[in-house]
Design brief:
The structure is a homodimer of 575-residue chains. Helices cover 26% and strands 27% of the residues of chain A. The first copy, chain A, is α+β, with helices and mostly antiparallel strands. In chain A, strands 3, 7, 8, 9, 10, 11, 12, 20 and 23 form a nine-stranded mixed sheet that branches. A five-stranded mixed sheet of chain A has the order 27-26-28-29-30, sandwiched between helices. In chain A, strands 14-15-16-19 form a four-stranded mixed sheet. Chain A is globular, with a radius of gyration of 30 Å. The two termini of chain A are 17 Å apart. The relative contact order of chain A is 0.14. At the A-B interface, strand 1, strand 2, helix 2, strand 3 and strand 4 of A face strand 1, strand 2, helix 2, strand 3 and strand 4 of B. Chains A, B: It is found in: Cytoplasm. Chains A, B: Its EC number is 6.1.1.15. Chains A, B: It catalyses: tRNA(Pro) + L-proline + ATP = L-prolyl-tRNA(Pro) + AMP + diphosphate. Chains A, B: Belongs to the class-II aminoacyl-tRNA synthetase family. ProS type 1 subfamily.
Chain lengths: 575, 575
């Protein structure tokens, strides 16, 4: 491509409304432009990257044996009513009516459509297993779209859905998808980790997320420092302490803590560490037959955080997890939230393993302005239910049994699920089994956020000058930057010759042939746009028989003999 | 691809709700499935064709110098309000509101979005001309979606938009697009014609449609039998008769024609040919200052049809063309529509050239139940305004001056427009010209109905056994059909060997390796699916050293020596 015939839309200034680096650099490198909140135009430079990502995803999905299909963006409400999601799905589902007043939505995902398609097409176990995927535009009406294409409303997703007659077959395809995702993210040049994940509201038994590791990630991932174990912090198990609890040494005492509500305030006032305290949160229990929801107390060590996902799965707790209104706590327990504690509490109490392991701890006295010290379980308070309800923290033993946990930030770019029969049951998607009997199909689903991959690759690969693309997804592999191309016939001829030769070698080349472009601007642009390889061609070099080469990550330039440059680049670029 | 790992979803019966052959065959060949009215799923077999069409379109657009972009499907109302189309566009524009109650629509076309994008990105004449295209999902809420993907609501379109500072530059790009479209449709293996077209409501000066010729087409195309001239019948000019009018021979007489209203009834009753009669249509004139719309009479020869597009462009006629309500005609003219005529009519009269050329003709008497014979212009009726307001018919002289016209049916698959400044003016899309002065950009736009191309290729290429794909867009180039693959190791080995060799040669091969598949079913399926080349491999042939080959259009099979088959196929398939 000649830059004179291509829209190079680089910006010098960082747009003020872009918070994360990928959003800033995608705007500055002229890859995307905002059309409206959460809606982006992909400019030619950006689209070249997007199409390369799509191509890698498609090639690997085809290799895995999945079949590509294409389902509509606009979906009829009836299918969503069959699955029950027309009611369940919140305002992220953009609903509309057509000219005949029939209700439709824009597809945020396609479980309903594929299940409807396959229940009509596949009738026999002999046609299974089968895995179908599409690469297609999706829409989620995010309440607060942000970070550019990282969390936009319209985006491109690769979604796949597999169908089976046994859980063994589902596991096989799940494993194939796990391996395929590893191949995809490896080819994309990303540092990533598959992590155990919660299955969330989509349902199903077993799930992995694929995370690109980057400080700007919205998720916390727990890793073992001694094994392959990795899990989303939502899911990572906190093992119960393995040592016996220390015996009680102190008597329980009530102390006045006027105006001290938070753990930090109380600790500073009483000169104890947060690890020696417990905090008590009051949440709503499950709805009873008489429609009331009892209060339930959750007790955690002062330095730990509640894991809502773990807590809401416990029997007796309402899902989604809901903190009790302060007024109701005050009315029923006679105390404000700053002085709650497990001693003498007349409601159900669930204690985290780590809190249950404490002796001589500090907690609220259930009396405003007072705390208790020297508290001990059994002697002073009962802990009838002990469970894992906290987030793991750095240094916790790994649940795999090897090493301790570290926490890193990740960006979720892929997710694989064992769905089971959630959709096929609701939508009556059945096949005839070996014995000619109807059997509900078992399903898996597998997603990759294609547009998000582009942004997350930048989050992981940039420097102060701009983006650094991996060769596999770079918009152009090589930039040819001429010095005075318009004035020097020798430079012009060499540029044209190399432009042709390198393209013939299968490389994507950007020839910076714009009239009157300044060298400094061209170099800054190629850096900003992240072109991984750059050669500068000028009269002085040509006279000396050499061409200047610099890799985007290199600290130093190299002089390559003119006659070697094509072979050098063919060997250097990893296509 | 192995058929055992691919969804072959052929149907024996023709689905009853499919009217046209392409819709029937796309369903029967397992290419598409209906999800809801005008919304289709593309199955693996169909998507392979769609992707090949997309690839050819993309390659030729890139070759033309156009730059690929991707704009959102969901578009904000503000942009459509700027262009004025939020009000103008009818219910085909699917409108919706997001969770914050902001109005949006699903893009049926992207003039507004691209104009908004480019007015912000391109500031100088130096960056022009520039041509941007996308291949993307569009939505038009058709009142009556039909013919499968031929007229669906959601469809894929290639739309391109070019920007210029002069009409000469626009004409240059327009010519490049004209040539590019010819290349595209030629590579797609279609018989097509570029035809002059009316620019319609999208505006602009100059326009060509690209039509695939097929009897099922919804458009009538007029061709010269002696030149390249071709035009949509909406646009094709009817030349005025070149001979002088015959002198009057008869006196005008009023005759009773009780119960005879239509031209056919009157002709039969009076024993005259329709060519010797005129018919009079009453339409609404332009709105006057006092908000009333006068009546206007349009007079055509009895055997001719009104061309609404031509008529509504005339001064004094309301656009869109609207027939006057019968009650108003009766009230103001004192006669029903079956007996109208130009004699003594007290409203404006516009006469078509051919009708104005008649002498001694028959027309309604403006008196219910009566007609006039022997009517002559000037002597009996005035024809103050003579214009071209009819559709051309077979045998008319070609407007190009060479030969006469023939009429054929066509399916519109592409359309190129010289838009001019319709959108750039309304949306203030300006650049600085050579003198640093602001200038409104001049635009062109260029569309191809990608999904419709697939259907129209079938309309033009099928027989009683199914689809006949051109090699360039066939889902698979070659089908390998084994006889008793499961029982014969020799057949299995040869099939596998050829499957590998042919794929290595860059050909798309479908190996029909399903267990227990019957030969007859496999042959019928490959014909139905339109696979252009087929080889049958069996023990008997292998023993005789030959493999049976049949091209999809061939009447006879051929025996090809086993050792030649790969080279034979490489030479035969046009990739």
């Amino acid at each position: 491509m000649r830059s004179s015939r291509f829209l190079i839309a680089t910006l010098k200034e960082t747009p003020s409304d872009a918070e994360v680096i990928s959003h800033q650099l995608m705007l500055r490198a002229g890859m995307i432009r905002k059309m409206a909140s959460g809606l982006y135009n992909w400019l030619p430079m950006g689209l070249r990257v997007l199409r390369k990502v799509e191509k890698i995803v498609r090639e690997e999905m085809n290799k895995s044996g999945a079949m590509e299909v294409l389902m509509p963006v606009v979906q009829p409400a009836e299918l969503w009513e069959e699955s029950g999601r027309w009611q369940q799905y919140g305002p992220e589902l953009l609903r509309m009516t057509d000219r005949h007043d029939r209700p439709f939505c824009l597809g945020p995902t396609h479980e309903e459509v594929i299940t409807d398609l396959i229940r009509n097409e596949i009738r026999s176990y002999k046609q299974l297993p089968a895995n179908f995927y599409q690469i297609q535009t999706k829409f989620r009406d995010e309440i607060r779209p942000r970070f550019g294409v990282m969390r936009s409303r319209e985006f491109i997703m690769k979604d796949a859905y597999s169908f089976h007659t046994s859980t063994e077959s589902l596991q096989e395809t799940y494993d194939v998808m796990h391996a395929t995702y590893c191949n995809i993210f490896t080819r994309l040049g990303l540092q990533f980790r598959p992590v155990l994940a919660d299955t969330g509201s989509i349902g199903g038994a077993f799930s992995h997320e694929f995370h690109v590791l980057a400080d700007s990630g919205e998720d916390d991932i727990a890793f073992s420092n001694a094994s392959d174990y990795a899990a989303n912090i939502e899911k990572a198990e906190a093992l119960p302490p393995s040592t016996p609890r220390t015996a009680a040494q102190h008597v329980m005492q009530e102390v006045a803590t006027p105006g001290k509500h938070s753990i930090d305030e109380v600790c500073e006032f009483l000169k104890v560490s947060p690890q020696q305290t417990v905090k008590t949160l009051i949440v709503l229990g499950e709805v009873r037959e008489d429609k009331t929801q009892p209060l339930v107390a959750l007790v955690l060590r002062g330095d730990h955080e509640l894991n809502e996902i773990k807590a809401e799965k416990l029997t007796g707790i309402a899902s989604p997890l809901t903190l009790a209104p302060e007024a109701r706590i005050k009315a029923e327990l006679g105390v404000g939230v700053g002085s709650l504690g497990p001693v003498g509490l007349k409601i159900a109490v669930i204690v985290d393993h780590s809190a249950a392991h404490l002796s001589d701890f500090v907690c609220g006295a259930n009396k405003d302005g007072f705390h208790l010290t020297g508290v001990n379980w059994e002697r002073d308070a009962t802990a009838p239910l002990v469970a894992d309800i906290r987030n793991v923290v750095t240094g916790d033993p790994s649940p795999c049994g090897k090493g301790t946990l570290e926490i890193k930030r990740g960006i979720e770019v892929g997710h694989i699920f064992q769905l089971g029969t959630k959709y096929s049951e609701a939508m009556k998607a059945k096949v005839l089994d070996v014995n000619g009997k109807e059997q509900t199909m078992i399903m898996g689903c597998y997603g990759i956020g294609v547009t998000r991959v582009v942004a997350s690759a930048i989050e992981q690969n940039f420097d102060e000058n701009g983006i650094i693309w991996a060769d596999s997804i770079a918009p152009f592999h090589i930039a040819i930057v001429p010095i005075n191309m318009q004035k020097s016939p020798a430079v012009a001829a060499k540029c044209e010759e190399l432009y042709t030769q390198l393209q013939e070698a299968g490389l994507d080349v950007l020839l910076m042939d714009e009239d009157k472009a300044r060298l400094g601007t061209m170099l800054a642009d190629t850096d900003l746009m992240g072109i991984p390889h750059r050669i500068v061609i000028g009269d002085r070099g040509l006279e000396a028989g050499s061409i200047e080469y610099k890799g985007r990550r290199d600290a130093e330039k190299q002089e390559i003999p003119v006659n070697d440059i094509v072979n050098f680049l063919k060997a250097t670029v990893k296509v």
